[in-house]
Amino acid sequence: MSAVVESHDHHHGPKKGLLRWLFTTNHKDIGTLYLWFSFLMFLTGGAMAMGIRAELFEPGLQLMDPIRYNQLVTMHGLIMIFGGVMPAFVGLANWLIPMQIGAPDMALPRMNNLSFWLLPAAFTILLSTAFMEGGMPGFGWTFYAPLSTNYPNIAYFVFAIHIMGISSIMGSINVIVTIMNMRAPGLSLMKMPLFVWSWLITAYLLIAVMPVLAGAVTMLLMDAYFGTSFFDAAGGGDPVLFQHIFWFFGHPEVYIMILPAFGITSHIISTFSRKPLFGHSSMVYAMVSIAVLSFVVWAHHMFTVGMPLVAELFFMWATMLIAIPTGVKVFNWVATIFKGSITYETPMLFAIAFVVLFTIGGFSGLMLAITPADFQYHDTYFVVAHFHYVLVPGAVFSIMAAVYYWLPKWTGNMYDEKMGKLHFWLSFIGVNVTFFPQHFVGLAGMPRRYADYALQFAEWNAVSSIGAFLFGLSQLLFLYIIVKAVMAGKKATPEVWDGARGLEWTVDSPAPYHTFEVPPKITEQTKL
Amino acid sequence: MTAKTDTHQKYYVPEESRIPIVFAFAALIAGFGAANAVAGYGTTMLYVGLVAVIFTLGFWWSTVTKESQAGLDTPQLNNAYVYGMAWFIFSEVMFFFAFFGALFYIRSFAVPWLGGEGAKGIAGELLWPEFEATWPPMITPEQSLLGENAAVKGPAENMYLHSLRDIGSWLPLWNTVVLLSSSGTVHIAHIALKENNKKRFNFWLGVTVTLAFIFVILQAVEYYEAYSHLGLTLDSGVYGTTFFMLTGFHGMHVLIGGIFLLTQLVRSSGYKHFSDKEHFGFEAASWYWHFVDVVWVCLFLFVYIL
After folding, report:
1. DSSP-derived secondary structure letter, A17
2. Which of A236, A405, B239, B279 could form a disulfide with B274 if both were Cys (CB 3.0 to 4.6 A apart)?
3. Quick check: B284 and B68 in contact, CB under 8 A?
4. Do B91 and A210 touch (CB under 8 A)?
5. How far apart are CA A38 and CA A167, in angstroms?
6. Cα–Cα distance measured from residue A290 to residue A286, given in angstroms and rounded to the nearest whole number
7. Are residues B88 and A15, on separate chains, in Cβ contact within 8 Å?
8. Residue B16 has pLDDT above 90, yes or no
9. CA distances from A443 to A52, A376, A378, B263 (A)
10. Residue A329 and residue A288: Cα distance in Å, rounded?
11. pLDDT for res A6
């Protein structure tokens, strides 16, 4: 009993030594763990992408057999989504939400630690298949039945996904109860910073759809090993059912990977334009609308599968509706920049690139939403170009922007601005050289997920590969910049950025281990 | 315990904890072991992992209970538990939603289309010309083509009530009676607790737990009957698939809910926990129980009757 009570005593700095990271309940420590883990996964998944682009540098099979190629494509997707982007956003949520709402920590700190440490467990299981007979999953990150049900080692994949799902659900519950329950007095919902809002909505989405994913993989497992017929027409099931269930999870999942990016971008654009964000509440309503709509658009991923016409039309119109709230957001960002006194520090460069390039990804999404047109584009590189535009210069750029923006707050040191700008321009050029040509080859008919391709696509694929290597290599520069800023650098002031708004900028840099032991008072004067 | 001198409300943040990392490790063993077991590489690791998971969870919850008894919980933290439990139940709802969704899709689209009806019936007509779309499909599409040589065969009988005369021996009805009344008894227990009548509370909670385990036993009997006499198994086509997966996951949740309630009974009668004001452990268990009950009502309607 006494042990329980002692731990209630006043908190001081972090413990020394490695065990700190295993036992920690501190939101900043856990945020750091999440961010480093996602960076490690980003480099791993990136290395796989380099393998893919090396193979596609020219037609023919050079480096690997098609099975290995499929495995790389699959693992690249799974690692980047579940290991890279999602944990990076959770890491940012951990660091920022308590600071932005004036709370001492996350609401459920031990569960927070567990949410993180389940991820290495899940990826250990998933990656262990590399050392097994039959190898890693090679059925694409979408694991369509019946391809996946006939694949070796699917059981390891299924249980890895289960553990990731448990981690996500616990993380989301933690985010929701923290936000609902631990805001500083006076911080009403509509005053809440947009990153917090974006995460509140994201967490709802996660809790709603991760269990559906768990259901989908459970059905796969039962079909593969226990003789059920969910996805087997011979027994009265339907493989298309798998796609419906998967995309019912999958489409909200897409927004799970972009909503926090919206929040981040809103903060950064407002700071470096030195203006309050234009249309704060319309931003909130737009995100809520996007989240609600995300539940009724899933079948636009499967227009060509053979659905009744009514369904094709419904999903087409519902999908196009999403352009409206998204348009509201883009125009709000532009209106925030308008007549601001703008400076172009690295976070701002990434944020502006986000707005422009994400919009390109959004427009190609609109093209894909048009059912008859999608019959042409489906499963071509046009789709690959589309979702990489929303995920790489979209989600990933926003994560990089966030890291540059808040790094001085985390470490107390400014990063190297020159190097940061160099990293931005290399990434910006790299990403466009990689993915823009994929629109062309896609429209010309090059299909996705093949290790080989027809000769007429050779030039643009070579260009795309060169861009990919440029983008991949420049991320090592990112690693260098971060490590350098963690070790040393110009000392940061509490406010860090001229014009930064929000509670996190009222505390020292680096932020103290326990930020708000006493909740700050929010008044009309507080800059939010 | 240190005296709380601060006037502001202090939020309890445990300094550090070994439990989560141990649990994550246990989950790794259990997850890997489960995959090994399913893929046919032995079950030892699974059992070791499950035991580790159960022990760590038990230890975790008992720690939380001790902290709460030591008065470390602020109203704010209690609120966190309330919200947390509510959202956990919502995630469970969505898990069942996936399986009910599968059932509705199969019944309204997949089976009719396979039988040649509706918008996409043409494929069924070409591939399985003999298959007739009925619910439940007693003959699978493959069986309609290959007869006895089919790998996936339909069940010999199904779980629907065939004649009103048999209603007295129709187990699902009894299960419904048991589960619905247990939802009532848990509510009576809750009222008793609010009136601080612990004796009455313990009694009605005891009744609820008993009903929970009666339900599980009846379900086991039903499964035994299905497997040994009705020729209805997990692999008898989509009917067997949806029947066993839906009722199976529900049964698992009944078992978990029953253990959850039993724990509260032990806390109340053995350790004298809970008062008329502070009893969220019990309240959470009863929420969970009502959720399990609602799922059953849907099951009874869509799996056994309609």
Report:
1. S
2. B279
3. no
4. yes
5. 14
6. 6
7. no
8. no
9. 20, 8, 10, 61
10. 12
11. 41
Question: Residue A151: what are its φ and ψ, rounded to 5°?
Answer: -100, 145
Burial class (CB in 10 A: 0-12, 13-18, 19+), B7: exposed
**Residues contacting residue A105 through CB under 8 Å, at least 6 positions apart:** A25, A26, A27, A98, A514, B11, B13
DSSP SS3 for B16: strand
Handedness of CA A116, A117, A120, A124 (dihedral sign): negative
> Tokens in use for A332?
């709000």
For residue A10, is it within any domain?
no
Contact A219 B87 (CB under 8 A): no
| Contact assignment for A211 to B95 by CB distance below 8 Å | yes
Contact B10, A100 (CB under 8 A): no
Give the DSSP letter of residue B215.
H
Put simply, the answer to whether A306 touches B99 (Cβ < 8 Å) is: no
**B87 in Cβ contact with A173 (< 8 Å):** yes
Report residue A499 CA to chain centroid gap.
27
User: Mean pLDDT across the stretch B142-169?
Assistant: 92
In whole angstroms, give the CA distance from residue A195 to residue A207: 18
CB A119 within 8 A of CB A164: yes
Q: Would residue A76 show up in a list of annotated catalytic residues for this protein?
A: yes
CA pair distance B1, B233, nearest whole angstrom: 58
DSSP secondary structure, A400-459, as one string: HHHHHHHHHHHHSB---HHHHHHHHHHHHHHHHHHHHHHHHHHHTTPBSS-S---GGGHH
Contact by Cβ (8 Å): B187, B286: yes
CATH number at residue A139: 1.20.210.10
Hey, which residues does A24 pair with through a beta bridge? Answer: B16
- What does DSSP assign to residue A83? I
Is the pLDDT at B17 greater than 50? The verdict is yes
Decide: B282 and B264 in contact? Cβ < 8 Å: yes
Residues of A in contact with B114 (CB under 8 A): 233, 236, 238
Residue A215 lies in a domain: yes
| Residue position matching structure tokens 């949410």 | A115
Question: What pLDDT is attached to residue B77?
Answer: 86
Q: For residue A2, count other CB atoms closer than 10 A to its CB.
A: 8
Residue with tokens 């090592």: A476
CA-nearest residue of chain B to A520?
Answer: B8
Query: Annotated catalytic residue: which of A172, A326, A398, A465?
Result: A326
Tokens of A316: 């087409």
Closest C-alpha among A163, A138, A154, A10 to residue A66: A138
Active-site hit among A198, A202, A266, A364 = A266
Q: How much of chain A exceeds pLDDT 90, in percent?
A: 92
The tokens describing A312, both together, are 């094709």
Residue A16 is assigned to a structural domain of this protein: no
Low-confidence winner among B1-5, B24-28, B76-80, B168-172 (lowest mean pLDDT): B1-5
Helical axes B198-228 vs B237-271, angle rounded to 10°: 160
Mutate which: A34, A159, A180, A219, vs B, most B CBs within 10 A = A159
Most A CBs within 10 A among B94, B120, B122, B135, hence the mutation to make, goes to B94
What's CA A373's distance to the chain center, in Å? 28
Contact A96, A194 (CB under 8 A): no
Mean pLDDT along residues A414-434: 98
**Among A189-203, A363-377, A429-443, B160-174, whose mean pLDDT is lowest?**
B160-174
pLDDT at A8: 43
Q: Could you give the domains of chain B?
A: 73-305 (1.20.120.80)
The reply to whether A8 falls in a domain is: no
Angle in degrees, CA A152, A157, A163, rounded to 5: 160
Distance CA(A342)–CA(A333), nearest Å, equals 13
ipTM: 0.94
